[in-house]
Amino acid sequence: TVRVKLIGRDELGGSGVAAIYYTTDGLPPNTASRTVSGDGDIKLELKGDIELKDDGIVPLRFFSVDNADNTESVKQASSLIRIDSKKPEVKDIVWDQKIDPFFGSTPIIIISGVTDDGLKGSGVKLVEIQLTDLSTKWVVASGTLTWQYSFIPDVLLNEYTVQVRATDNAGNTS
After folding, report:
1. Residue 32 contacts by C-beta under 8 Å, 6 or more apart in sequence?
2. What's the sign of the alpha-carbon dihedral 19, 33, 7, 78?
3. In this structure, how many other beta carbons lie within 10 angstroms of the beta carbon of residue 60?
4. The pLDDT of residue 112 is above 90
5. What are 120-158's pLDDT values in tens digits?
6. What is the C-alpha end-to-end distance of the chain, expressed in Å?
7. Which residues, in sequence order, are CB contacts of 109 under 8 Å at separation 6+?
């Protein structure tokens, strides 16, 4: 949920702000649209919070009306409001082993996979991998939607535990 504050202001000596009308579907608002209303007192400033809950881009449009029925032109939020409450998914993890020609017969382990942040998501920012037997810190894989990480295994370790997580541009981590 994202909370947005709408503020309507009337000039000094004005009749006061009666209401702020708004839409979140991209259509221009009118006096039948959702509203932030005053209490009938003459206030030069009217403030109200609205809650936006649906994931995706929210095209917020609004206008205010004063107590003398003067109406301002419809305005649009100066920056896009993007809501992303869902974690990205890490899918299709593949573990492969190849021989590196530059290091003779040394094997290289390649871990790769796919991430998905959904149609309304903010996009995958990074993918990280943790090899619990090799290191306890998370390392960044190359790529985001399709990604990979490679390493030369320790010859003394026969088993690795691999954890993969993805973080999207909204900060949600899988």
Report:
1. none
2. negative
3. 21
4. yes
5. 888 999 999 998 765 678 999 999 999 999 988 776 666
6. 19
7. 95, 96, 97, 150, 151, 152, 153, 160
